[in-house]
Design a protein that fits this description.
The chain is an all-beta fold and about 190 residues long. It is about 0% helix and about 35% strand. It has no helices and 25 strands. The strands form five sheets. The protein has a ten-stranded mixed beta sheet with strand order 1-4-7-10-13-16-19-21-22-23, with no helix packed on it. Strands 3-6-9-12-15-18 form a six-stranded parallel beta sheet, with no helix packed on it. A hairpin with a 2-residue loop joins strand 24 and strand 25. It starts with a strand and ends with a strand.
């Protein structure tokens, strides 16, 4: 295990790739086939399920389970106890197996707040900001600020994290955006 850190209380299954500089803290489990990029941080009690792909620079806070069918791109932030699902109609008595899991993609730079839920089968766009406790039940445009249950777009967020209040120019970093059908794009 050179190039990354795994706390002695954590379990790493066979056939797992972990990138250089990644830190896996207390009581985590990384399951078979998982691929974790460079410079990631997995907080206490994180479970990464079979065949999950996680990009570089991802920060996953405490008590998060990233289930099979979820893909997380580079520089994503997953707040404490946020929830991912992978089956729209689960039944304990009638398991369907991984062939029926719905794919969920969290695009580069997105942030998911504490206790937010992302229902499977959807894409969260680049640099989107999902508020604490929100329930995402539809695709999220790039840079969208999503709040509530179900989550609705309540504004836009800059790549730097600042909320865009007056037009589509960031008062903090100066980036300017234009609105498109898929969300904001930088000018």
């Amino acid at each position: 295990m050179s190039g990354y850190f795994v706390h002695e209380s954590s379990y790493i299954d066979d056939d797992v790739e972990i990138g250089e500089g990644t830190k896996i803290w207390y009581f985590c489990h990384v399951q078979r086939g998982a691929r974790i990029g460079k410079n990631c941080s997995l907080g206490q009690n994180v479970n990464i399920s079979n065949d999950v792909k996680i990009g570089n620079g991802v920060k996953i806070q405490n008590n998060v389970a990233v289930y099979e069918g979820v893909e997380i791109e580079d520089d994503v932030f997953c707040g404490p106890s946020c929830v991912f699902t992978n089956d729209l109609t689960p039944r304990a008595k009638y398991p369907k197996g991984h062939a029926n899991y719905k794919k969920t993609v969290i695009k580069r730079g997105a942030s998911i707040g504490a206790n937010a839920t992302v229902v499977c089968g959807h894409t969260v766009g680049e640099w989107a900001l999902i508020g604490a406790g929100a329930v995402v039940s539809a695709d999220v445009p790039a840079h969208a600020l999503m709040l509530g249950v179900p989550a609705k777009r309540k504004g836009w967020a800059c790549e730097c994290g600042e909320l865009l209040k007056d037009g589509l120019k960031c008062s903090k970093c100066g980036r300017s955006y234009v609105e498109t059908a898929s969300g904001l794009v930088e000018e």
